[in-house]
Amino acid sequence: MRELLFVCVHNAGRSQMAEAFTNSLAKVKMLPVHARSAGAAAGDEINPMVAAVMEEIGISLEGQRPRQLTQELADNANLIISMGCGIYADACPARIHVTEDWGLEDPKGQPIEKVRAIRDEIKAKIELLLTELGGSR
Predict the structure, then answer these.
(1) Which entry of 4, 23, 97, 123 is 20 to 30 Å from 29 by CA?
(2) What is the pLDDT of residue 116?
């Protein structure tokens, strides 16, 4: 099983969407891939607009909570992807080794149309990533 870790600052938006898409799509494609997400400074709750746009496409974030990035989470990941929010190893409580950065805009404070566009961009990136990982089983 490949473990993916999506890292953001607050773990309240982009990284939560990436985790949800990865786990949902990997299950459908029957890929041995599992995702988690975490934040360098985990927030208190999931961004309500993010939860709403995910619910629109049938993926619930109910029960999800922002998770603090720890060394253990980083150590257990085969691949760590930052979402484009300035996550650097020296700024994190865990010494992470980001494999790649997706450079995504933060949905916080954005109108719903923009949050939907960010959601769709994340889904496209996850689909491509899972295609790549599926070829290396």
Answers:
(1) 97
(2) 98
